[in-house]
Amino acid sequence: MSDEKPPQLVDYFVVAGLAEGSRALEEEQQPRPARPGEPITDVAVIIRSQGEEVPQGFTCIETSTSGHPVDLNAGLLNNPQMFLCYKRGRDKPPLIELGVHYEGKDRPKPGYQILDTTPYSRSANLASGSPGHQRTFLTFRRAAEPPGHHTLGVTDICLVMPSKGESTPHTFCRVDKNLNTSMWGPALFLCYKIAVAKDNTLVYEAGLLSRYPEQDSESFPLPESVPVFCLPMGATIESWPVGTKYPLPVFSTFVLTGASGDKVYGAAIQFHEAFPRERLSEAQALRLGLLSVVDRRPVPGRSLHTRKSICVLSHWPFFDVFRKFLMFIYRYSISGPHVLPLETHISHFMHNVPFPSPQRPRILVQMSPYDSLLLCRPVSSPLPLSGASFLTLLQNLGPDNAVALLVAVLTEQKLLIHSLRPDVLTSVGEALVAMIFPLRWQCPYIPLCPLALADVLCAPVPFIVGIHSSYFDLYEPPRDVIFVDLDTNTIFQSEERKLLSPRALPRRPCKVLLASLHSLSQQLDELLSAPGEEEPPELVLSDAEAAGARRAQLELEARAAFLRFMACALRGYRSFLRPIAPAPAPAGRDAGSLFALQGFLRSRERAYQRFYGQLLRTQLFTQFIEDCSFASDREPCLEFFDTCVDKVQVDLEKPEDTPLMELDDPRGGEHTVFITPPEQPAGPDGAEPPARYRYDGFPTLRPELLEPPRDPLVAQLCQARSSAPSSPAPRRTKQEMKVAQRVAQKSSAVPELWARCLLGHCYGLWFLYLPTQVRAAPAKLRALQLAYDVLRKMEQHKVVLPDEVCYRILMQLCGQYGEPVLSVRVLLEMKRAGIVPNTVTYGYYNKAVLESKWPAGTQGGRLRWAKLRNVVLGAAQFRQPLRQRQRQRAAGDPPGDVPPPAPRPPLHRQTTWAGRSLRDPVPAPRLVKSGSLSFPARTEAGAAREGPGEPPLLPVTPTPPPPPHRPRAPPGSADGSLSDIATDDSGGDEGPGGAGPGGAGGGGPGGVTPRRGLAAKLQQLLSPGKRPPPPRPSEPPREPGGRRGSEQRDGDPPTSRRSPAGTLLRPRERPESTASESSVSLGSELDLSDASGGSSGAPKASGEPCTDGGAGTEPPGLEVLLSSCSRCPGCAALVFDEELMAGWTSDDSNLNTSCPFCSRSFVPFLSIEIRDLRRPPSPPPVPPSPQGPVLSDRRRCLELDGTPETPGTPGTPGLCNGCAETPPPWRRERVAFAYLSPLVLRKELESLVENEGGELLARPELVDKHPIIYWNLLWFFQRLALPSQLPLLLLGSQHAPPDPQPPEPSRVRVRLLWDVLSPDPESCPPLYVIWRLHSNIPPRLHPWGPPAPQFSLPFLEALLSHVGLNEVHKAIGLFLETLADPKAPRTLHRSIYRELLFLTLAALGREHTDIAAFDRRYRSALAKLGGAPGRDELRRRRAQPPSARASECRRCFGAPPEC
To answer: What is the CA radius of gyration of the chain?
Structure first.
């Protein structure tokens, strides 16, 4: 796997300004009205009826915008004629705001002056005609001293009469107070325009002055248009009066969108610096007012300045961080001298400041002793990252205008956003495209458009463009554009293009949206208008952090309000998606073929049909349907939106209580990386070096001063973990993880749901491993079919899946290996299970169906060959009787002795894609081992029947043909094994006594033994002294009719009969019954007793005999014993597998389980024993002994003595403890690792696949580098008998040294144990081990201590007799009385329930014991005993049964096959 580079914080640093080849922009300007050269500095009111004239230098406003006369007192009788006048100039600061003051009603605003007198000292009361009217005055606010050249000011004033059809002019602010307060006359309103009133300016297109790095990166070359975005209004040369104050730097942001939709964010500051007069031509000097027009003499008192910009480009919208860095660089350039050059700080920030990662979420950068900035990791959100600010949108437009713009964006209108503040344009523009999530704006989008690219406003397509308001002083705007003025909070619509009214939106969702926005707007006003009281310095920082957190919360609520509206508007859209089921047509990507447009439109209310009709015709919706139908990079976002659609309730008139957005904010982490400033070079003799860097203006970057990365290790420590691009399986999205966590929390309270939840996660683990399994399989189609069969079994047994990953992975593999038909079947299986595929799954399905090659519809030659075969076989069938009759006549035989004809293969009808017939006979059923499922493992005959030319899915070890009849072993099987005995019913049906039609059912030659009473049967079952010695491995079978299985004693009855009270013994007449209560569960139907890895690591079919170590096959090279039984560190009790599962929690990061006896939390362990059964390296040669075989070679001794073999299975070793005995290993290794919950294991496996790739699951490095994940996966896969290649990985790991002379590839056999793997030598053996010792069956584990004398054979027989007679309470009482003996063992590591259960299984055999019935009898018995010693005493002595959760876990997973 190739290492990916960590995310880079800054890509480029750019300096833009007036370059040598910059062209003048004003030369190509369109005709425009003359813009004002000077701002308005004074206003006045004159009374003409009293002889007042317009003051000198003032201009009087006598008409409205449409030419109607405007008298400020026109509504009063005998009114004085009052008019408004204004004056322009630069002799004083300009006016920046106007207003109207109602005396006695309004409070005077701070900073405003009231115009209460005329220039002739008369009252300027606009309602002076009648003393009873309210006194009304004009107010104004002036800019601060001294004025700058770029100070905003009032540049124009007008009066409008709405009753005359007049409206507020574009870019004008309107004072919403009527100047005419009387009952007569028309309403009159004051409007004014704010702009930058400047002259003597030349505008040029900005060019690139300097950049770093100088070479383009391969992934992101520097766009050529960056300089014009840095200076959107152009690079200027300006002439200022001497002494004019420099304006403050202006911060602006912009967004560049690539062809693939990727966004690049730019942050820039614009500033002015001196410009040399020598670089000007005479024409330029004349235009700037530096030369007189008549005699061309220099004009004194003027200075030249130019506008520059510095900018950073990044893929991350860290605008606040970039603003602080750029301001530091700018201040550094105008101060000095400095020891370090400016280039050092730029290269230091770009190279040595890493991107924040989950491990280091906070980066504190110290740029100088006085300047620092904090860089925090972005908030983890399912929504796409953007620089949107919904609070800025509400603050500048208000709730009503925000909803109106939502309608405009959804219907794809031409929107032109303008403001005098360039930093606001990007925030509002990003909010407009973010409010329509999950839709994406597909048309031109330029949130800050440069003047050089203003031609885009004439484009005949919808657009969202932001531009500086000065554009309207230079250009005539288009007429079909909707103008949004952020400075005046107004939306201007032309007559040619009218917006839909917000009433066209769905009523209830729109009402909830408006209510939420009004509430947020009010809270924002309170936050911004908080009184600034004097506070101690130590509280300033905490208040700032609290205000920032409050703003972040309001931002989240505003975004959630728009998200809720979109979820309500698009509710139910998934049901109208059309999956591609047949072979796709060329127009398969058309929106009409992917979505039922008319059906969706008819599902909406008629009142909103106009809005939905326009929405469905937009490019927004078309692209949205394509994103939902095909796999794309937006799958996590769309899947999150689907969950939001499920949460919202459209009919509610208020938001839901459950929040739609739950963000994981990592900024509260304590891990902070501190980045120090650049190091200063040391001077001679350690003295401070001289400061020799001083700049008159921002310099051109010098490459020799740009330093390389100082500490590359910092970036490596802080980099985010990169995902492996070769990871084959689509994993869970973050939203699916959250949903699975909530489902697990709810399921943990219900025992049955908890067990099914764990089982579903186990199958999720196997499907995550499925790509590795399919990749290693020789027949891909058969492996995919096997996975499909697993899905069907899961549906049949109602396994609760926490997500859709199982279906999704199989769909992706179907597309990868060209099986679209199987992908369609998987989708139908999902719908049959009641699962609606989300966006991610739906995308993988359509991708698999669309991109795969479909088989021909007529099936061509395959169908013809099948027809020809049927014709040939039919003709052969007709000719066969004629040939037999001819043979009889030739041989002279009578016609009555004709033997039946040999069966011919049936006629095949071609009905499937794979060429196999749907009427193919199913292989003969076999009785599998108890607790096992007839899984898609195949016999050789079944594999051969699937058709030639297709290799088997997994290599199958050749098996000897089965004997004609294999009767079941009696209930009292000689080995006393806890494993199940597999039988094959292919030889014939058993009769009532259990015997087949071709042989006796008992072990003796007498055939069927008559039934006996319960006492006689128990006497036979509970008499271990009469059992023969344990069987040993025997010779290969010499007779085809030899029996396989456990040894059967003479005289044993072939069947067992259930007592009237409901005994625990299973009747022999019910071969379909299984050994435990898990016979009806999914896990119980999986063959767990024979988990041999074989040559490929896959389990064999349940009906096949165990061939490991048998005749005709090589013994396994490695044998692995696994046990999950763990000892509680608190009470030293043994906690078994189902109890461990019951103690796990729903937290996918918690490794602990709880002890059922002392409730202590501890980490359980998987105990592993690896036995190397291969030949030891270079054994010394042993010369043949002339005396014959040694006595230890029992097989050869039996051959020489002529002793008949033990009546066991020919060619199969005898069973000990549930599995075939193996020769003693020459090497043994024991290890132990943490036993993980499937929830924890799945999270770790997904992280492993994401970081290191799925190929690691097929390499032996998995065993050595990640042993916990490996052994847990092996345990669960073997527990559920799911095929995998995991066992074979052991052969290449450090646990298996290479065989110097391997005769053939080794096999690996895995055995799962219920009890402990390494017992305590000093502890008393459990009862089932003592029983086997009395039965002369050697235990599997040898270091058991001596048994207690109280646990004698009569005691064990008495316990079993009580259990067999359904008197479990007597068995518990007898056990407790025996433990009360002073000489009895003080403590038992196993509970009384576990001792009795294991003893019953060992004596009666698992196939004759119903564990569910045993649990019921045991609980009933405890209820009877609860009053005698008390429940607390019984619990103290560990007599309680397993909990309901433990029983459900065992029912779902099945019990491990061996003790």
So the answer is: 44
